[in-house]
Specification:
The protein is α/β, with parallel strands linked by helices. It has one helix at 17-45, and strands spanning 79-85, 93-98, 101-108, 113-117, 122-126, 132-138, 142-148, 153-161. It has a 5-stranded mixed beta sheet, with no helix packed on it.
Length: 164
């Protein structure tokens, strides 16, 4: 009769459970690294929201509550809208207003710069095709220069007279 003892075949290898766990752990780490890289790539390619005034019109959404300026005296406030050019060689523009008026100012130009309204703490960027937009309640009498910071030149002046 033949010997019935069991012996492994020559081509078979025994694999320990610990080495399988290590291989699966490395594969899981590689998967997480690939997912993290894809997330970073998608985030860098996604368009960023613009930080400017929102479009107004019939199809534009309106904010839930819009603060409206209230006049501080018997005279009513006005809304003054002005567009000026920041291009070199253009004369400075002057805006005359009263305290309590609302000024909507747009600065257009074919340059990349920052527009500052000194004394009012307003700063916006201007670039070709994307003007700087300011909307503010003029509550402090005085003269306020509108300047281009990088070009170091004035492009306008805002004169705010006290309310009569």
């Amino acid at each position: 009769m033949k010997d019935l003892t069991l012996q492994p075949a020559d081509s078979c290898r025994f694999v320990h459970v610990a080495s399988i766990v290590q291989v699966l752990g490395r594969r899981l780490l590689v998967l997480f690294a690939v997912l993290l890289g894809l997330t970073a790539l998608v985030t860098s390619l996604a368009p960023r929201p613009t930080a400017g005034p929102r479009p107004t019109g019939p199809g534009a959404a309106t904010p839930a509550s819009t603060p409206t300026p209230t006049p501080t005296s018997q005279t009513s406030s006005r809304r003054i809208e002005r567009t000026i050019s920041a291009d070199a060689g253009r004369p400075r523009t002057r805006v005359r207003a009263r305290a309590g008026d609302v000024l909507a100012r747009t600065v257009r130009g074919d340059l990349l710069d920052a527009v500052e309204i000194a004394g009012l703490g307003k700063l916006e960027s201007v670039e070709p095709g994307s003007p700087a937009r300011f909307e503010m309640l003029l509550d402090t009498p005085g003269e306020f220069r509108v300047t281009l910071l990088d070009a170091q030149r004035a492009v306008g002046l805002i004169e705010v007279a006290p309310t009569p």
